[in-house]
Amino acid sequence: MQLSIFSIQEPVINNKPLDRGTFMAAAQFVTALNFAGEFELLSLSAMNTQVGAAKKGGLVFVRNGKLKMHPEIYDHLSLISISSICAGSVYFYGRDKIAAEIVNLPYRDGLLNLEGAEEDYMAFKRLCSPVSRFFLLQAKKVQWSAILSTFRFFMMEGIWDVVNFVAHALHQADADVLACAQLLESMQKQEWYPGFCQSLQDFHGSRYPLSKVGLESELPEMA
After folding, report:
1. Is pLDDT above 80 for 52?
2. How many CB atoms are located within 10 Å of the residue 2 CB?
């Protein structure tokens, strides 16, 4: 039995531009690679961020439905979900501005660009709820911990370059939907791939095992 986590409603149109939606989809894939042992990554297509558009796109992956959904799994899913919005914000404002302003989050929450991604943000908040209940923490605290963690991931040396690589691969592909295995195969041929794998390990080790103390330390003023 497999559990479908995300699904594509319709494939995006041909000749898609290298726009914010492409980077948002690429970011979900790159973030999901932190948890490749938990999920089977299937396919990727650019996200349509136009308001009122019916076509969604994005990352499709599955998890064995017999496995327990423990708090860390919900946290993995919340990071993957919010990564598209964080990446859209980096695309909109620029990496340098995000890096400079991240210390002011969540007190300057205008940096989180939600245009065309309001539904994704609501899904993100739902995914954070089991984590906040498990650790008996404010929902806002858990949400901002995930947002800050995701922004910091994209600020790590070389990570945004990998997002850029995947976005260009998605843009240049003949098909609207790319197999994740194909993307990963092309990444493994790049000279930066070993360093990227080390960055994934470093990021994973900085957040897990998930704990109440760790989550509270992010935003002590919100306790």
Report:
1. no
2. 11
pLDDT digits (tens, 9 = 90+) for 127-155: 999 999 999 999 999 999 999 999 999 99
For 148, residues 6+ apart whose C-beta sits below 8 A from its C-beta are: 102, 105, 106, 218
- CB-based contact 9:56 (threshold 8 Å): yes
186-209 exposure pattern, b = at least 16 Cβ within 10 A, e = fewer: ebeeeeeeeebeebbeebeeebee
- Tell me which residue of 24, 22, 37, 170 sits closest to 83, measured CA to CA: 24
Q: Name the phi and psi angles at 201, rounded to 5.
A: -65, -40
* SS3 (DSSP) at 217: helix
77-95 pLDDT per residue, tens: 999 999 999 999 999 999 9
d(CA 177, CA 217): 40
Three-state DSSP at 2 gives strand
How confident is the prediction for the chain on average, in pLDDT? 87
Question: Is there a cis peptide before residue 11, judged by omega within 30 degrees of 0?
Answer: no
In a 10 Å sphere around its CB, with 0-12 CB exposed, 13-18 middle and 19+ buried, how is residue 102 labelled? Answer: middle
Stretch 98-109: mean pLDDT:
79
Distances (CA, A) of 219 to 106, 137, 211: 9, 11, 14
